[in-house]
Amino acid sequence: MFKAAIILSQTYNITIGEQFIGWQTVQTDANAISALRSTCLAISSSNIVGIVGPVSSREANFIADFAETVSIPVISYAATNPDLSDRNTYRVFYRTVPSDNVAAVAIAQLFTRFNWTSCIIVYQNDDYGIGGTKVLSEAFSKN
């Protein structure tokens, strides 16, 4: 979808600073430092005005911090860590998906609505799973 938007912008002669909008992809491997290294290399060799991605919240934390220092926006289509919603900390970070807080509130409301009193949570043992479990536990405590 992103590539299609770039092609359309070029077809209709849409420019930024009299230059056509281009793109560059960098593959990351869920390693935050590797993602940061790739981002630094891309920015140092191109006229980057924004970053789309990364997918993981762990990478997004690093990339958003870096992007703040060089004043370029970051938009992620998959990072859901609620901490990324803090506008004071992540001023240049945006996302197209809701944070885990939204899902946690919805799940807590389901429990309230159907008077469920227990459940089993299966999660991945990483930042994503631990963070999701944390916000879910907080939502249950509030309800």
From TrEMBL:
GO terms for cellular component: membrane. GO terms for molecular function: G protein-coupled receptor activity. It comes from Rotaria sordida. This is Receptor ligand binding region domain-containing protein. Residues 30-142 form the Receptor ligand binding region domain. InterPro entries: ANF_lig-bd_rcpt, GPCR_3, mGluR, Peripla_BP_I. It holds the Pfam family ANF_receptor. It is a multi-pass membrane protein. The keyword Transmembrane applies. It comes from the Eukaryota. Keywords: Glycoprotein, Membrane, Receptor, Transmembrane, Transmembrane helix. It is found in: Membrane. The keyword Membrane applies.
